[in-house]
TrEMBL record:
One of its GO terms (biological process) is proteolysis. Binds 1 Ca(2+) ion per subunit. Keywords: Calcium, Glycoprotein, Hydrolase, Metal-binding, Protease, Secreted, Serine protease, Signal, Virulence, Zymogen. Pfam families: Peptidase_S8, Pro-kuma_activ. It is found in: Secreted, Extracellular space. Its main location: secreted. Residues 1-18 form the signal peptide. GO terms for molecular function: metal ion binding; serine-type endopeptidase activity; tripeptidyl-peptidase activity. One of its GO terms (cellular component) is extracellular region. It comes from Schizopora paradoxa. Ca(2+) binds at residues 533-534, 552, 554. This is tripeptidyl-peptidase II.
């Protein structure tokens, strides 16, 4: 027995002696407590393998941010001069010293890493709970979500060697908790049988009259009439529109054909979308497997952005980004392409308070990178009003993520047609992680003066405000498993507005001009007057009336809904 112990000691002694520089640990990240809805079910098994992600401190992100705004701000000498894949990666790539010392730490502990991002700033490392607990002075436990029974291994705090401070940005997943409702489709009402409306409308757009039936059922023709969206077929094959797909939500081609035959009879019902997959994703065409969210997103891109090449990007469950469940993977996937889509719409999200600040910042920086490449990134703002997914359990407002990130465009929801009003579920508010960006400072200041002392102390007055824009989000007609029905949610609004920008990009590219790219500097300046201001309604939550929709920007409907003719002029067409 003594000999066995001695041999074990001798085996680990060189390892300990070889890495004294990594022995001094300093607290790196911590949570105030267990997130709402979770309970600690006990210590995690010591031999359970954790697939950790090491986020390295990125290179010159401050300069990349400057470049992003230079190429995205109307009037800038660099406006529209989007960066190449190689140029972006050069800004993001960690310093050689950073990569070297992190690899030295790993080697000293018998670990090796796999690089999982184009710029080399994200590493994948596997180790048992026992080793992770020792290396990071962490107490890994099994946490159970009481409502769903979903379990995950997390810690409420962890430390890193002082020698890695300034080099290792975060270790994930550690203090980030999966939100069980984060990636559910943000559709407020389930599909329900209804008759196809097949409204002919005013396809030549010579009249702006909106059929009265649009007050109860929104179709592509209603959107064309309400917003002036053209039916003329796009012409530019290089102008791609990407649709994100998660949680085994499959977009069905047969349902799309049925949708088009009934609600867009002026275009071929055989119009198809392309498919890309990652993380083991797929897109089975068994009709019974059709997803409400996936069908909605595809039908209101293909069926609204007439002729724009549309790709469904299906993310499987073999995540490389851990508890982010593919959110970072899909961006890294697109960053790895030479020509990513000009517009990307995503109808999923989560509460900001479930994710660590460092990880949220890293994902936000990924949106910055893709925006600098010339891609407009749109996300649904969420369907819980000011409460995220907390319903009435919250005492302070719960912002959603990634809507709080300043490098993407958040889309809220409206309802009604004469006039449009804020949908009461429209997610909106102010980030607790990200500061208010300069492009919206004036608009937010005006709103806060109008708001006065209402909801004082319930939100961060200096945070990034969202949503930025809005579109119809209630009583939207779709087809699922060969059945017509209506749905609601900001997940309707994001693909609708994405289609508007995709059609504008088509005309810009045809005119020899660059695509719009990161939208917000344009929207909050020359683009603001090209939107329909929504001034009624609110988004209640947390046992309050939430925020009111007012003249100008508000955290319910943003700057407003699209006016295609005015937007054409605003973008220089």
């Amino acid at each position: 027995m003594f000999s066995a112990k001695l041999l074990t000691l001798l085996a680990i002694l060189p390892l300990v002696l070889s890495s004294p520089v990594f022995n001094n640990l300093v607290l790196h990240e911590q949570r105030d407590g267990v997130p709402d809805g979770f309970v600690n079910s006990g210590a995690a098994p010591a031999d359970q393998v954790l697939n950790l992600r090491f986020g390295l401190v990125q290179g010159d992100m401050a300069t990349l941010e400057q470049k992003l705004f230079a190429v995205s701000t109307p009037g800038s000498p660099e406006f529209g001069q989007h960066l190449t894949k190689e140029e972006v990666e050069e800004f993001v790539r960690p310093a050689a010293e950073t990569t070297s010392i992190v690899n030295e730490f790993l080697a000293a502990n018998g670990l090796t890493a796999t690089t999982i991002s184009p710029a080399g700033d994200m590493l994948s490392v596997s180790m048992p709970v026992s080793q992770a607990s020792s290396l990071f002075d962490a107490d890994f436990s099994v946490f159970t979500h009481q409502e769903t029974g979903q379990q995950s291994v997390r810690t409420l705090a962890y430390s890193i060697p002082a020698a890695l401070s300034g080099h290792l940005d975060f270790v994930h997943p550690t203090i980030t908790f999966e939100n069980p409702f984060a990636h559910l489709p943000v559709v407020s009402s389930p599909i329900s049988p209804s008759a196809a409306q097949n409204i002919a409308g005013n396809n030549n757009l010579t009249s702006r009259a909106v059929p009265s039936s649009c007050a109860t059922t929104i179709t592509p023709t209603c959107l064309q009439d309400l917003y002036g969206i053209p039916t003329t077929k796009a012409t530019q094959s290089s102008n791609g529109l990407g649709v994100s797909g998660f949680i085994q939500q499959f977009a069905n081609q047969a349902d799309l054909s049925t949708f088009l035959a009934s609600l867009r009879p002026d275009i071929s019902s055989s119009t198809a979308f392309a498919l890309q997959t990652l993380d083991g994703g797929e897109n089975t065409q068994t009709r019974a497997d059709a997803g409400t969210e996936a069908n909605l997103d595809i039908q209101y891109t293909v069926g609204v952005a007439t002729g724009v090449p549309t790709t469904f990007i299906s993310v499987g469950n073999n995540f490389q980004d851990g508890a982010l469940e593919g959110f970072l993977d899909i961006i890294n996937f697109l960053l790895g392409e030479s020509n990513p889509p000009h517009v990307l719409t995503t109808s999923y999200g989560q509460n900001e308070n479930t994710i660590s600040r460092a990880l949220a910042n890293n994902l936000c920086n990924a949106y910055m990178q893709l925006g600098a490449r010339g891609t407009s990134i749109l996300f649904a703002s969420g369907d819980g009003g000011v409460s995220g997914s907390q319903s009435g359990r919250c005492t302070t407002f719960v912002p959603t993520f990634p809507s709080g990130c300043p490098f993407m465009t958040s889309v809220g929801a409206t309802t009604g047609i004469s006039p449009e009003t804020a949908a009461d579920f429209s997610g909106g508010g102010f980030s607790n992680f990200f500061a208010q960006p300069s492009y919206q400072a004036s608009a937010v200041s005006t709103f806060l003066k109008t708001l006065g002392s209402t909801n004082k102390g319930k939100f961060n007055t200096t945070g990034r405000g969202f949503p930025d824009i809005s579109a119809q989000g209630e009583n939207v007609e779709i087809v699922v498993d060969n059945k017509f029905g209506t749905v609601a949610g900001t997940s309707c609004s994001s693909p609708i507005f994405a289609s508007v920008f995709a059609l504008l990009n088509d005309e810009l590219v045809a005119a020899g001009k660059p695509p719009l790219g990161f939208l917000n500097p344009f929207l909050y300046s020359t683009g603001a007057s090209a939107l329909n201001d929504v001034t009624s309604g609110s988004n209640p939550g947390c046992n309050t009336n939430g925020f009111p929709a007012v003249t100008g920007w508000d955290p319910v409907t943003g700057l407003g809904t699209p006016n295609f003719a005015k937007l054409r002029t605003a973008v220089g067409l």
